[in-house]
């Protein structure tokens, strides 16, 4: 065994982490395991006192400082999780902590640092910007700098995660999946695993828009990214450390790049198995594991993903929920063109068949053709061409929008607008119990003599489905129409007089 591995093994075995950190559980992810055909284990670092593994490295570094060094105070740069680790460690060791955080840091993490007694200084848009400012403060005030990843003591503290995994699961392990930002966690985990059980693969997982480590490995030198994606703020690092680059290049077996949709799907996977909501960085290991299994067709293996953090802003959940089904290949999105004639709308729904509708958006705009945005629940990506062929057989052209960012981010929220063809239109909101095929039953109950000129529905996971419908009804037919909607048995509201309808849709 190489000497530096022995050195790190000794550092990890003697790391001071358990004064403040806990030995986290290694839990089976039963639902995900059944789906993937492998035994998936989650190393639950999200359950640490600061909901992140960062506490380990920060405390191991700071606990080794002399009383004189502690009296000067410490400074660090962080997107949030390392900041909380430093702040809690400083409170335990009774020293001042000055925390420089990017202005893009979630408020949840800022508030957590303040609650632990740290001084928060917001600077820059990324970790690297915050790091430069923290380094200036260190030089100016002679603080002790606590690096979030590029420090042997910090790396050794994070390495205790790997030590616990091997102690908790002594059966054969095929691979351990680790999210990479600056590289501290994967360096420490890989150092321990390769020193003790080198046959276990260590797989690094990076966001496709924040892949400084992988680009550095490919270039055989550290590469600084001009910009980094901020969805996974915990791994938004423009340049990795010198020591972490050296160790990752030598010890890590493979890398996987994931996108935001697949991470959203992984957050949902973790929630379904644990009822915990991970932050994006915390779910990257799961996303990489799923991608690796699909690529290598693995079956029957023990696979470990480190769920390294759960500090997520509540407001971020709206985006996560919206994109999780697409990232998990559970939702297909189509732009379907149908003839603008009575019966086409119902025929489209009949063509969809038993599949659960997740979204339906339509606005009358042309006398000859209608364009409908349709979202459908699917079990796997292979169903998409099958659905396209099914619709084509009914004469409906369908454009696959699964990978179209314009549609997923904007178009699905903008369908509608005024139409010169909506004479005698009345607007209603309906609520009905949300269950499979409920939308089809609702559409089937619509009277064929009244033309649907606007339709919007989005399955939001609530107990009740909410539909907005524009229906063209002449004045003389209004009594019959009123009788019709009253016999439907659905709660409804007449929005025809709503001023918002007049301003934006009529």
TrEMBL record:
Tell me the InterPro entries matching this sequence: ACT-like_dom_sf, Ser/Thr_Dehydratase, Ser/Thr_deHydtase_PyrdxlP-BS, TD_ACT-like, TD_ACT-like_sf, Thr_deHydtase_biosynth, TrpB-like_PALP, TrpB-like_PALP_sf
Cite a single GO MF annotation: threonine deaminase activity
What is the name of the gene encoding this protein?
ilvA
Q: What is this protein called?
A: L-threonine dehydratase
Q: Which CDD domains match?
A: ACT_ThrD-I_1 (cd04906), ACT_ThrD-I_2 (cd04907), Thr-dehyd (cd01562)
Q: Which UniProt keywords apply?
A: Amino-acid biosynthesis, Branched-chain amino acid biosynthesis, Isoleucine biosynthesis, Lyase, Pyridoxal phosphate, Repeat
Q: What does this protein do?
A: Catalyzes the anaerobic formation of alpha-ketobutyrate and ammonia from threonine in a two-step reaction. The first step involved a dehydration of threonine and a production of enamine intermediates (aminocrotonate), which tautomerizes to its imine form (iminobutyrate). Both intermediates are unstable and short-lived. The second step is the nonenzymatic hydrolysis of the enamine/imine intermediates to form 2-ketobutyrate and free ammonia. In the low water environment of the cell, the second step is accelerated by RidA.
Q: What is its EC number?
A: 4.3.1.19
What is the annotated quaternary arrangement, including any partners?
Answer: Homotetramer.
Question: Which SUPFAM superfamilies does the record cross-reference, listed alphabetically?
Answer: ACT-like (SSF55021), Tryptophan synthase beta subunit-like PLP-dependent enzymes (SSF53686)
What family is reported? Belongs to the serine/threonine dehydratase family.
Q: Which GO biological process entries does UniProt record here? A: isoleucine biosynthetic process; L-serine catabolic process; L-threonine catabolic process
Q: Which reaction does it catalyse?
A: L-threonine = 2-oxobutanoate + NH4(+)
Q: In which pathway does it act?
A: Amino-acid biosynthesis; L-isoleucine biosynthesis; 2-oxobutanoate from L-threonine: step 1/1
Question: Where is each ACT-like domain found?
Answer: 332-403, 426-497
> Do you know which Pfam families this protein is assigned to?
PALP, Thr_dehydrat_C
Class of enzymatic activity (EC top level) = lyase
**Keyword Repeat appears in the UniProt entry:** yes
Q: Which NCBIfam families match?
A: ilvA_2Cterm, PRK09224.1, PRK12483.1
Q: Spell out the Gene3D superfamilies in the cross-references.
A: 3.40.50.1100, Biosynthetic Threonine Deaminase, Domain 3 (3.40.1020.10)
The species this protein belongs to is: Thalassoglobus polymorphus
* PANTHER family per UniProt: THREONINE DEHYDRATASE, MITOCHONDRIAL, THREONINE DEHYDRATASE, MITOCHONDRIAL-RELATED
Question: What cofactor requirement does the entry state?
Answer: pyridoxal 5'-phosphate
